[in-house]
Amino acid sequence: MTMLIFRKKLHHFSSAILTLLPMFCLAAEAPPNTPLPWAYALNTPGVEDPFEYNVPHTVPGSDVEITFTLPRDLYAPPDWHPEDHPAMPAIVSGGRNPGVFACGYCHLPNGQGRPENASLAGLPREYIIQQMTDWRAGLRNTSEPLHGPATNMRAIGANATPAEVEMAADYFSSLQPKKWITVIETEIVPETVVAGWMYVDAGTGRNEAIGNRIFEMPVDLELTELRDDRSGFIAYVPPGSVATGERLVAAANCRTCHGEELRGLGPVPGLAGRSPSYIARQLYDLQVGNRRGLWSPLMQDAVSDLDLEDIVALSAYLSSLDP
After folding, report:
1. Which residue ranges make up each domain of the chain?
2. Class of domain 181-320
3. Does the domain spanning 2-173 belong to CATH 1.10.760.10?
4. Most C-beta atoms within 10 A of its C-beta, which of 12, 112, 256, 291?
5. Cα(93)–Cα(97) distance, rounded to whole angstroms?
6. What is the pTM of this model?
7. Pick from 102, 113, 112: which is nearest to 168 by CA?
8. Nearest-angstrom CA–CA distance, 129 and 111
9. pLDDT digits (tens, 9 = 90+) for 89-141
């Protein structure tokens, strides 16, 4: 019954967005600061939150029932499927108030993440620790200052202790990544708006040309907004972009560092199956010097000559692979 009520509410808000994040995720009024606004998706302003609080919610395949009493409590991530992952350390399951949000809220208990952040499942422990070190040192920045998730990561990087970082790195590096994103080549996509820093169907029934963009959207918006970590995403990409990306990967010798199957090599992260929105943001941030961490110089030659079509194609191809 709860699910049916939710679907009806979504229908009634078909011409509007779902503003479903807490106070730090205020909708952005200013124009985008990058030539890839689709990758740094900024919330469309001005719509109510139809989410039902103070009523029990469930998701398929789970015996857990959760009643949400606060607007998106970042210190209490829902754990619908505790059998799917090891016991979470406190920093992942609850964070530390103030300022160090629970890692499992944004990145999900299974580490698969969402378009607005990063998938951490199976990343090398050394890599995760180094990235947190870079955030703390101000060496990782976003090319879109209005993109809330990156702003939060800067704050968490500044406040998390080395011990907390190590506990989170131990946990996420122990997880097995899974196929999370279905890549579909298409010329036409549904008319969209941005809510929760990701694209959602505006519900208008109208379509638009995809152009040189990627639209990464939930398979099931209802389950995604309940933060069900068994419900993944669809990435709509331009026709021919996957094959073009494959050729670019071969030409750039990406496999030398990232492994023959692009699933990582030693402390170097895997790229296969990761969010195309995330990949595009990192390629652009590296290209313009907003990502300057310890290992970033290794990427400078690889990204220096990429144009926007290259970034779209690389992101589409890498996301299409099995992690």
Report:
1. 2-173, 181-320
2. mainly alpha
3. yes
4. 112
5. 12
6. 0.89
7. 102
8. 15
9. 999 999 999 889 999 999 999 999 999 999 999 999 999 999 999 999 999 99
